[in-house]
């Protein structure tokens, strides 16, 4: 048997598996959560795109160049096992098939891709705790409110 055949199989065990792709509305903004199972410590690259009218438009990406019309409205946050796209001022013209593509550096299994159809009227509101993740300055707010809390304690004494 050819020992070289073993190599891709070993690599396959390290692939980034996208587990789940979900979308929700946070105020006027769209949030798309791309959850994956992390099987490697290699750096992760991603691409969020939308297909509408049979054309693919890149919204935010580390793999290719994103389109101007989306670049100013989109940002991506990365957490443990989650890559999160935030698209501001989501309207019906942003409806379409959203795609999350993940690739780990030096991974030979190829890119992992998952799609979700996003229609404004069918979107759920994001769960409450997600505000914490979406708003990266929540920690700052927490720190700013600490003196307030201490002042309240002081008054109750």
Automatic annotation (TrEMBL):
Keyword Glycoprotein annotated: yes
A GO biological process held by the record: regulation of cell migration
Q: Which InterPro entries match?
A: Ig-like_dom_sf, Ig-like_fold, Ig_V-set, THY1
**What does the UniProt keyword field contain?**
Cell membrane, Disulfide bond, Glycoprotein, GPI-anchor, Immunoglobulin domain, Lipoprotein, Membrane, Pyrrolidone carboxylic acid, Signal
Classify the protein's membrane topology as the record does. Lipid-anchor; GPI-anchor
Q: What does this protein do?
A: May play a role in cell-cell or cell-ligand interactions during synaptogenesis and other events in the brain.
Query: What name does the UniProt record give this protein?
Result: Thy-1 membrane glycoprotein
Molecular functions per Gene Ontology:
GTPase activator activity; integrin binding
Give its localization: Cell membrane
Give all residue intervals belonging to the Immunoglobulin V-set domain. 29-102
Enumerate the SUPFAM superfamilies for this protein: Immunoglobulin (SSF48726)
